[in-house]
Each structure stands twice: as structure tokens, then as C-alpha cells.
Amino acid sequence: MSELPPLELRVPATSANLGPGFDSLGLAWDLCDRVRVRVAREYAVEVTGEGAGDVPRGPDHLIIATLLGALRDLGGPVPPAVALEAENAIPHARGLGSSAAAVVAGLLAAWTWARPGRPVDERWLLRRARAVEGHLDNAAPALLGGLTLVVPGEDRVLRLPLDPRVAGAAFVPGDALATRAARGVLPPTVPHTDAAENAGAAGLLVHALAGAPEELLAATRDRLHQPYRAPLMPASAALVERLRDAGAAAVVSGAGPTVVVLGTAAELAGIAPATGFRVRRLRPGPGASVGTPGD
Ligand SMILES: Nc1ncnc2c1ncn2[C@@H]1O[C@H](COP(=O)(O)OP(=O)(O)OP(=O)(O)O)[C@@H](O)[C@H]1O
Ligand SMILES: N[C@@H](CCO)C(=O)O
């Protein structure tokens, strides 16, 4: 068991939905959590940065629980305990994919211990991530990097072309909002007209992100989730409206309450801070990586 090597992983923050692409489009950012795991006699968890005061310190820590479950699924080896060190940069429960990043870290670590030297089986990893997360639009870009499309109902994930001029600015509020709560307010059905608007906007968004950033404002309109969630995040909803009225392609990131503006670096340079939000400049980034410490 002690032959299982210590591992170091990096996993990116992600924005799911991007406006009209509910549960299907997602984008990885250059904001990453760093995680180290090793076999130990007793569980030990050291966390710095985001969520440090809140996450469990034992086998129920999301990364460790995911790792152990996946090792069992892969037929072992399951160590007596693991020690985990995490430097968290991704804010928790803000719509930037922190839980998907943790799940992808646990699954990549499990694969690396159970199948050393073998390229990760993406279908296995995404199936496991779906079982934990319920949807894949954060896990897919966290694993693959860049812009990804999940086809809900089909077991398929595509990496889509992304114009290198596209960047982001995240407005992260102080208050958290659990994804589960934000999904709980969505109605079981939506009007046909809203579905049609979103279908058109999602198609335009893929086109805009691939090479027509001047279309981003028109392409980021959403009728399927943001209006229903607005009462849970009134400050974010007001900020989206204000930014869009000023011509910026602002959307709610994932289930919120972070607001993300998509645009070229030149457009984003003019974005002013907003009271009650931390602003973080973002660039699209690569997917998760795993190696041994010091690599
Ligand atoms: N790095 C982490 N380590 C341990 N637990 C984590 C970590 N990241 C997230 N979690 C757990 O997941 C919860 C947040 O998950 P949730 O799905 O509500 O939000 P999110 O993933 O940040 O946002 P979204 O899914 O909308 O992008 C945290 O409160 C914490 O319990
Ligand atoms: N598509 C998911 C993303 C959660 O991060 C939702 O909006 O609920």
C-alpha cells in the first residue's frame, strides 16, 4: 500500500450554463485548487484558502470520500487512510464549480492509484462525476479544460472551439448559495417560447465563443434558469441587468450567485468594480492535471 505514490493535482474553477446553455455548456478558468494526497495511517486534512473553516476533516471530506468510493469501484487498492493538503482558490457555493473540482480531483487521484500509467478513461470519470454531482456541465470542463458541451440524456461530452480573445471577469458575492437550493426553485416545465429563445441563443453562443465575440451580448440571453433564480440572489440579478444594460455580456455563473462577464480583454478592461462583490479577472484555462509532488 505504501507503494501508492503521493499525488499532486490541479483542478480549475468552471462556469456552467454561460447564460442559455443550461446543464450543457461549461468553461474552465485559470483559477485552480491545488491538492496533495498520500497514503497515511490516520486521516489528516489540511486546508488553506477558500472553505478552509467549513470542510470536513476526515473521510467525509468530498475529495477523500470521492477518492475512496472510486477506488472501490475500480477494485482497489483502498489505503487504510489518506492525508490531504488543499490550497483552495475556488470559492465554495458561489457557482464556480468548487464541488465539481473536488470530485474531479478525487476521481483522477483514484484512477492514478488504481490504473497507474494508463490514460484516464474519460467516460468512467464523467459517469462517476455525474453520479456525485447529478449533472456534468462543471465536471466536463474541469476535466477537459476550455469550453465543453455536455449533451444531457446522452453520455457525450465535446470540447468546443474557443476564440483566444475571449476572457472573463467574475463578480463573487460574499453570500453563498448551495446549488441544490438553486435547482430547487426551477419549475418542472417552461413555456415553448422561452425554450425556443434559449435554443437560438445557445446556438449563437457556440458561434460567438468560437470566433465572433461581438455577438456575446445577444448570445448570452437566458429564459430557462436565471429569471427563476433571481429572487434567491437579488444583488446578482440586479448586477447582471445593470451590466447588460451597459452592453456587457453578463450571466450568472453556474447556479450562482457569482456573475461572470464574457468578452475580449479590451472590453473587460472597462468593467468597474461593484459594491458587495470581489472582482476576479479570468482567462480560459486547461483541465485538471495529476502528477507526483515536485514534477
Ligand atoms: N475543495 C472542496 N473540498 C471539500 N468540499 C468541497 C470543496 N469544494 C466544494 N465542496 C463542498 O461542496 C459545496 C459547494 O457545492 P455547490 O455545488 O453547492 O457549489 P459550487 O460547486 O461551488 O457551485 P456550482 O455547482 O453552482 O458551480 C461546499 O459547501 C462544500 O461542502
Ligand atoms: N447547470 C447547473 C450548474 C450548477 O453549477 C445548474 O445551473 O444548476
Structural class: alpha+beta
**How many domain units?**
2
Number of strands: 11
Average pLDDT for all residues = 96
Q: In angstroms, what is the radius of gyration? A: 19 Å
The proportion of strand residues reads 25-35%
Helix content: 25-40%
Residue runs with pLDDT of under 50 for 5 or more positions: none
CATH topology of the largest domain: Ribosomal Protein S5, domain 2
Give the overall shape, derived from the CA principal axes.
globular
CATH class designation of the largest domain: Alpha Beta
Order of H and E elements: EEEHEHHHEEEHHHHHEEHEE
Through-space gap between termini: 22 Å
Task: List each distinct ligand once.
Answer: adenosine-5'-triphosphate, L-homoserine
Mind summarizing the main beta sheet?
A: 7 strands, mixed
CATH architecture of the largest domain: 2-Layer Sandwich
Count of DSSP H/I helices: 10
Catalytic activity: L-homoserine + ATP = O-phospho-L-homoserine + ADP + H(+)
Binding site for ATP: 91-101
Function: Catalyzes the ATP-dependent phosphorylation of L-homoserine to L-homoserine phosphate.
Protein name: Homoserine kinase
Structural commentary:
- Residues 215-264 form the GHMP kinase C-terminal domain.
- GO terms for molecular function: ATP binding; homoserine kinase activity.
- This is Homoserine kinase.
- It is found in: Cytoplasm.
- With 295 residues, this protein is α+β, with helices and mostly antiparallel strands.
- The chain has two domains: 7-160, Ribosomal Protein S5, domain 2 (2-Layer Sandwich), CATH 3.30.230; 166-282, Alpha-Beta Plaits, CATH 3.30.70.
- 33% of the residues lie in helices and 28% in strands.
- It contains ten helices and eleven strands.
- The strands form two sheets. Strands 1, 2, 3, 4, 5, 6 and 11 form a seven-stranded mixed beta sheet that branches. Strands 8-9-7-10 form a four-stranded antiparallel beta sheet.
- Strand 5 and strand 6 (156-160) form a beta hairpin.
- The longest helix is centred in the last third of the chain and has 20 residues, at 192-211.
- The radius of gyration is 19 Å and the shape is globular.
- The protein starts with 6 loop residues before the first strand and ends with a strand.
- The protein binds adenosine-5'-triphosphate and L-homoserine.
- Adenosine-5'-triphosphate binds at residues 16, 33, 51, 55, 61-63, 86, 88, 92-100, 102, 138, 178-179, 254-255.
- Residues 16, 33, 51, 55, 61-63, 86, 88, 92-100, 102, 138, 178-179, 254-255 line the site of adenosine-5'-triphosphate.
